[in-house]
Amino acid sequence: MPATATPFLGGITEVCIVTPDHLKTMDGLLRLGIGPFQVFDFTSTTVSARRFRGQDGDFSLKVCFAKQGDLVFEIMQPVGGKSLMGEWLDEVCDSQPSRSVFFDSSMTEVVNHETIADKGPLEYKRNNKEGVQHLAFDCKNIPMSERKREMQARGFEPAMEGVWKGRKGTCTFCFFDTEASVGTVFESIEFSEDWEDPEHEWYPQAPQDK
User: Fold this and answer.
1) Would you give the distance in Å from CA 188 to the centre of its chain?
2) Residue 82 and residue 92: Cα distance in Å, rounded?
3) Nearest Cα to 24, choosing from 72, 75, 84, 59?
């Protein structure tokens, strides 16, 4: 049994849902009382130093944020380039084989096992793995360079990163390749002290106190 390493992740600051349709997902969360959302575009203009799996990155994303107490709900929709979010949506689902399904008169599902057997090896359907794709931790607000060193020392390399430009200041973000080990991606985010949100839209509308 491996020994428990010294904790350093700190608190969870953000939960992110990755989706092919950010509007649909925002509408669903709004029905649960989560929102309104700030909507941003992550592009070559708004995000510098983009990296993906150790190489220069070209990812573009639609990114939406809503605060819920001390937690931020984030929605990401990949728009272009290679990204962890695009990989998530494109992942082949190998847990449910293709099959022929029929219903009897009482609407009870009946599977035609004979048809499956006749077709030989089961075929697997491509599946949009929409849902929670990553969690963000504050790592007790230590500098990002130290966060990366800690994660690398524990065997987790940066998988995707960049520097988001604010109206003032910057936001450095880094996703680590934890999915194979823990089933999801861990991220950490560092805002500069002078951070101010860049231009954005509100959905469905800005809060009344803004």
Assistant:
1) 12
2) 16
3) 75
C-alpha–C-alpha distance, residues 32 and 15, integer Å: 15
Q: Is the peptide bond before 36 cis (omega within 30 degrees of 0)?
A: yes
CA-CA distance, 47 to 1, in Å (whole number)? 42
| Local confidence pLDDT in tens for the 210 residues of the chain | 677 889 999 999 999 999 999 999 999 999 999 999 999 999 999 999 999 999 999 999 999 999 999 999 999 999 999 999 999 998 744 434 443 333 344 434 343 333 334 444 433 344 566 899 999 999 999 999 999 999 999 999 999 999 999 999 999 999 999 999 999 999 999 999 999 999 999 999 999 875
pTM for the structure as a whole: 0.82
CA–CA gap between residue 174 and residue 187 (Å, rounded): 6
Among 65, 77, 67, residue whose Cα is nearest residue 19: 77
Q: 22 is written with which tokens?
A: 């950010």
Which residues have CB under 8 Å from 111's CB, separation 6+? 99, 100, 101, 102
